[in-house]
Amino acid sequence: MIQIIGIELFKIFKKWRSYIAFLAIAVIVPIVQIAMYVEGNHYLEFLTQSIQQVFVFTGNFLNGYLISHILLGALMIHIPFLVTLVAGDLLAGEATAGTYRMLLTRPVSRWKIVTGKFIAGVIYTNLVVLWLAFISLGLGIAIFGTGELLVLSGDITIFAKNDIMWRFVCAYGFAALSMTTVASLAFLLSSMVENAIGPIVGTMAIIIVFVIVSNLNVGLFKDIRPFLFTYYMNGWRLFFETPMDSAETVKSVSVLFAHVVVFFGATLLIFKRKDILS
Amino acid sequence: MEKIIEIQNLVKQFKNLTAVNGLNLNVYKGDVFGFLGPNGAGKSTTIRMLLSLIMPTKGDIKLFGLDIKQNRNEVLRKIGAIVEKPDFYGYLSAYNNLEILGKLTGMQPTKTQIMDMLALTGLEKRYNSKVKTFSHGMKQRLGIAQALLHNPELIILDEPTTGLDPQGMKEIRDLITHLSKDKKITIFLSSHILYEVELVANRMIIINKGSTVVEGMVEDLLNSSHLQVTIEVNDADKAKSVLENSSFKAVVESVAFNRLVLSVSKEELAPLNKYLNDNGIAVSSFVPTRSLEEYFLKLTDKAA
Question: Smallest CA–CA separation between A8 and chain B, in Å?
C-alpha cells in the first residue's frame, strides 16, 4: 500500500497542474498581506468604527494573527477549487489518458489502487492547507509581528497573545478536514466519469449551490441546512469563539468525517464494479 | 497439453448490445494463438474480460487453470498485455513509466532490467524522454517493453501492429516469433489482419458478432500450402501470358497495372520466380495477400 501511495504522489507531483494551488496561494496571500500592510490601519478603523466611541484600542491589532484569520475566512471559499483540480483528476484522469488499461491489468486489487489514490489525494489536500497556514500565518507574523487577536463576529472578542496559536492549529486542522471532504466528493465524482473536467466542475457546482443554500437566511432553506456538508465547513470559526462550543465542534467534525467515509465508501463500491471501457 | 486460457460460454451484455455471445476457446502452453475477427466482433471485449478490466455477464474464464474471479492477482502476475493502443503517463519518461508499472506488478525493477527492456524495443536512447513526445510506433514498442518487463508466461497482444509502418509490423512479428520460439512464452494475438496471424500463429479462432466462426490449426484452416500472392513485375501482361503458357499450376486471378494476383502453391513459388526471370520478366516483389473479409466470404459460401 505504501508503495502505491508513493507512486500516486510521484504522479501527482510530476503534473504541473498540481502546483497551481501552491502557486496561487503563494501569489494571493502576499498580495493581501501587502495591501494590509499599506491600508491595514484604515481597514481596522473601518471594522471597529461602530465601537470606537465606546472602547479605546491600544496595542498592535494589525498583526499576523488578524491577517491570517481574515485570509482563512476569505480563502475557504476558493481553496476547494484548487483542491478539486487534483482530486477530480485522480481517477478520471486515468480514464482520459487511457492508462486504466495499464494500471488495472497489474496484480494489484482495485480497492488497493483506489485507496492508494485516495490517501495520496488526502495527503496532497493537507499539504495545500499546510502551505496556506505557512504562508498566511508564518509570513503574516514575519511581516506584521504578533499581538492580540481581534475577532468580529457579531460580538467583539479579543484573544490574549498566548491564547491564540492553539486556536489556529485547530482551525487549520479543521480546514484540512473540510478540504478533505471536498476532495472526497471530487474523488467520488471522478470514479463515475471518463473525463476530469466533469468532477472538477461538478464538485464546484455542488459546493457553490450548497454554500448559497447554507448562507441564505430564508426559512425554506433552514430545514435543509443541517444536511449540507458545506454548512459545517465554517466550523473552523468555532475555535475563535469564547467560550468554545465543544458540542457543536464535535458535531461539525463528526459530520464532515462521516461525509469523507461515505464518499470514499461509495467510490470503492462504484470502482470495484466498474467496467473499464476507456 | 496444459491449458493456459480456457473460456467457456462467455457472454458480455452491454444494455441492449451483446458484445460476446457464448464464446468458447482454449489456448495451450506454447501456442501462438491468433484471435481474429473484423472490427466490432468482440475481440477487445473478450481481452478485457481475460484481464478482468470488465466483468463477464455469464461464463467462465480460467487462466493457468485458475478462475480469474477468485485468483485475479495470482493470474495477472503471469501475464503481460497490451490492450488496444498502448497509453502511458505522457508527462513521465519512458523509464519512469516502466519503473512504475514494474513496481505495480510486484517486482522492484533494477535500472539494468528497465534499460535492457528499452534496448530490446529500440528505445534505450529515449529512456529519459517524456512519453508524450513519442510517436505511435514508439508507444507500441514501449507497450511491448512493459508487457515483457516482469517475464510473463503469457502475453496478450491486442492489435499490436495497428498504426505501424511495414518495418514496424515486421519487427513486431519477429519479436513474437522470438518470444515464442526462444523464450517459450505463450502468445495470444488479436488481429483483424489474417495475413499477420498466418505468418506467426500455429492455432487460431475467428469470431464474429461475439461468437466463434471457426477454430483450429492455422495450416488446416487456411490451407497454407496454397497461397494467394501479389507479384510486382515490369510487364504484367507479358508475365500473365508467360505463366498461362507454362506448366505451372498457378492461376492468375487478376492483373492491375504492373501487379498480378496469383493463386499458387508454396512449392511452386521459387521455380516460378526463376521461370519469370528466365523469360525476361523482372520480379520486384512477392507479397502474400489474403484478407479476412475474403476468407469470411469463402466460409460463408461453403456454409451456403
Answer: 10
All three cell numbers of A275, joined, read: 467496467
Closest chain A residue to B78 measured between Cα atoms? A107
Chain A nearest-CA distance from B140, in A, is 13
Are B55 and A277 a contacting pair at CB < 8 A? no
**Per-residue pLDDT tens digits for B81-98:** 988 888 899 999 999 999
> Looking at residues A19-33, what average pLDDT do you find?
90
Taking every pair of Cα atoms in chain A, the longest distance, rounded to a whole number of angstroms, is 72
- The alpha carbon of residue A41 is apart from the nearest alpha carbon of chain B, in Å, by 47
Question: Does pLDDT of A124 surpass 90?
Answer: yes
Q: Is B144 on the interface with A (CB under 8 A)?
A: no
Give the C-alpha separation, A26 to A40, whole Å.
20
- For the segment A124-153, the average pLDDT, to the nearest whole number, is 87
Q: Scan residues 82-101 of A and list those with Cβ closer than 8 Å to B.
A: 97-101
B251-256 β-sheet, strand order:
B251-256, B259-265, B226-233, B283-288
pLDDT tens per residue, range B113-169: 899 889 888 888 888 899 999 888 888 889 989 998 888 999 999 888 877 778 878
Question: The pTM is what?
Answer: 0.82
Among A187-191, B203-207, B246-250, where is mean pLDDT lowest? B246-250
Distance CA A276, CA B15 (A): 15
A275 touches chain B (CB under 8 A): yes
- In the sheet with B3-14, reading across from the earlier edge strand, the strands are B17-28, B3-14, B58-63, B66-67
Crossing angle (nearest 10°) for helices B94-104 and B136-148: 30
Is it the case that residue B67 has pLDDT exceeding 70? yes
- Residue B32, φ and ψ in degrees, nearest 5: -105, 105
pLDDT average, residue stretch A61-77 = 81
List of domains in chain B: 1-78+155-161+182-219 (3.40.50.300), 226-303 (3.30.70)
**Measured between alpha carbons, how far is B154 from A117 in angstroms, rounded to an integer?**
29
Q: Residue B79: its chain A contacts at CB < 8 A?
A: 105
Provide the residue type at B272 as one letter. L
Interval A155-196: pLDDT, tens: 778 888 888 889 999 999 999 999 999 999 999 999 988 888
SS (H, E, C) chain B: CCEEEEEEEEEEEECCEEEEEEEEEEEECCCEEEEECCCCCCHHHHHHHHCCCCCCCEEEEEECCEECCCCHHHHHCCEEEECCCCCCCCCCEHHHHHHHHHHHCCCCCCHHHHHHHHHHCCCHHHCCCEHHHCCHHHHHHHHHHHHHCCCCCEEEEECCCCCCCHHHHHHHHHHHHHHHHCCCCEEEEEECCHHHHHHHCCEEEEEECCEEEEEEEHHHHHCCCEEEEEEEECCHHHHHHHHHCCCCCCEEEEEECCEEEEEEEHHHHHHHHHHHHHCCCCEEEEEECCCHHHHHHHHHHHHC
| Minimum Cα–Cα distance from B150: chain A residue | A106
Tally of CB atoms within 10 A around B160: 28
What pLDDT score does B292 carry?
61
